[in-house]
Design a protein that fits this description.
The chain is α/β, with parallel strands linked by helices. Helix content is 60%, strand content 8%.
């Protein structure tokens, strides 16, 4: 336990120190507000807060449907992500068999309670963050156990089949099926890794746009960390707010440019489409659907008037 805690603090301690120096808390004090969201986009709300009355005002039907969606997403995540789809029955079979063995249960207990707690919390409590990555990333902690349960489950399945098929040789079949499933898992990983790689295009576009901006630019963009990483320019996320509120945030943080893409917040859809321009925002570039606006400050607009 000592080494577990020490290892955790060796990684996270620096982040806690940064938070303490920045806003006097080791962790954000507003994270629990995501329990009461009615839309994932409101994670990027500006100058708003969320509480239980806000959630109740959404209506019982919407709350129920969102939680059912969360449960469905949790089941899909477990089967498709954690178990590679085809390993799910072997993992569950293995867990059931080993769960009944007193020698194995102490090793399975941490994984079991973590999995049950994680899936319940991320589907029923933090539903929207859970659906959009919270569950996916947190479930990575289950992999050491699941990938140990999978081959054990394959062994149990082979033994079950061999007891009914006299021509089967269990040891040879175990080696054959385990090797085959490793190949399948590798093929799935390779296919997903090569077909789901749009980040490279975004990186190239960010670099291309960043090269045209002054070094003191401050950009409001959908993927602020990604934009900063690829350009070195200061960036903040676009708030999920109407135009005037977004401009208030831009004025507060001295934003010089706004970069919108097709995944822009819904309140800014008309600005992105060009059907509702604003005098404070001048479109200066359109690079493969990335639209760059120069923001004119309130002082600039007053001088021009």
């Amino acid at each position: 336990l000592f080494f577990l805690i020490a290892g955790y603090l060796a990684v996270m301690g620096w982040w806690f120190a940064h938070n303490l120096a920045t806003f006097n808390h080791a962790l954000s004090t507003v994270g629990t507000q995501t329990i009461f969201l009615t839309s994932y986009d409101d994670i990027f709300a500006y100058a708003r807060s969320f509480d239980l009355p806000h959630l109740w005002a959404w209506g019982g039907k919407n709350i129920l449907l969102s939680r059912l969606s969360g449960i469905s997403n949790a089941a899909q995540t477990f089967i498709a992500v954690n178990c590679f789809i085809f390993l799910a029955p072997f993992i569950l079979w293995s867990w059931k068999r080993l769960r009944a063995a007193p020698a194995h249960w102490p090793w399975l207990k941490p994984m079991t309670w973590y999995a049950l707690t994680l899936y319940a919390v991320m589907s029923l409590v933090f539903t929207f963050p859970g659906e959009r990555g919270g569950l996916f990333h947190s479930s990575a902690a289950l992999w050491p156990w699941l990938m140990a349960l999978a081959p054990a489950g394959i062994g149990f399945a082979v033994e079950w089949a061999a007891a009914r098929l006299s021509h089967w040789k269990p040891q040879r079949a175990k080696l054959l099926f385990t090797s085959l499933f490793i190949v399948i898992a590798f093929a799935i990983s390779l296919a997903l890794g090569t077909t789901r790689a749009p980040e490279n295009d975004a990186a190239q576009l960010y670099s291309q746009i960043g090269a045209t901006l002054p070094k003191n630019s401050r950009v409001m963009v959908g993927n602020a960390p990604g934009f900063y990483y690829h350009t070195g320019l200061s960036a903040i996320s676009i708030p999920n707010e109407p135009m005037e509120i977004m401009l208030q945030a831009a004025e507060t943080y001295h934003i010089t440019h706004l970069l919108l893409d097709s995944d822009r917040p819904q309140p800014l859809a008309e600005l992105y489409d060009g059907s509702f321009p604003h005098p404070a925002l001048e479109l200066v570039a359109d690079v493969d659907g990335l639209k760059l606006f120069v923001r004119h400050s309130e002082a600039d607009l007053e001088r021009s008037n």
